[in-house]
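tool=predict chain=A
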Amino acid sequence: MSGMGPLLNGGRVVIVGGGPGGVACALLLHQLSREAGRSLRITILEGKQFSGARHHNLCVGVLSPPLQTLLAERLQVCFPAKLEHREIAGYVLHSPRALVVLNDPHERSVALRRVQFDEYMLGVARERGLEVIRARVVDLDFHAERVVVYSDNVALEADVVVGAFGLDEGSATVFGRSTGYRKPEALSSIVTRFHPGPESMASFGGRIHAFLRSDSGIEFGAVTPKDDHLTINIAGRAVSDEQMAAFLR
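tool=predict ok
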């Protein structure tokens, strides 16, 4: 493109990714454009189907402060309290030499199911008149004054394209082919769940237990209480099922 100027009335923005980052970007852009007296066409492309939990995100599902304040004050979005599984009372850090308990009575984290939160946020976007299309981007074609975004079921012309796809391999490859984007180094992660029963869940409490490991190739592991189960995750440069089994033992 020849250069970024101000978005004119009727301009189009395509956001690739319908997670919290992509939807927040769309909502804020919609809000700021209205304040500036401009009408923008904003489209969110998301390949996953969150309703009915048909697809999942590799995420533990804990919202930490100040997310709730940002939703209310910056985006004018009510926090969906009905989606809460459990309030997180604090964190317990385990290392080979010490155990540290972290509590903050003034700020609270909330455990929920990420796919339900993502579907809620996409619903807010739809209610405010933003276009949400279930599609995966397969290519980008840059021209002097526009970008053509090709997906598996629609092609869109845009003035601006925003990549909000996190660490999605497919989208990263598409952006890498068409731009100078390079996927950042990141830890890989494995997530599983364990159902210990009501009594054990009650005795476990509302704290997240994080284990800082110096062996086995695991950077850290964590056990997070949800409504009726524990979500367990490990992360490292190249974690495996065998490492998860060892961590569970």
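Residues 85-111+186-248 form one domain. The first helix runs from residue 20 to 35.
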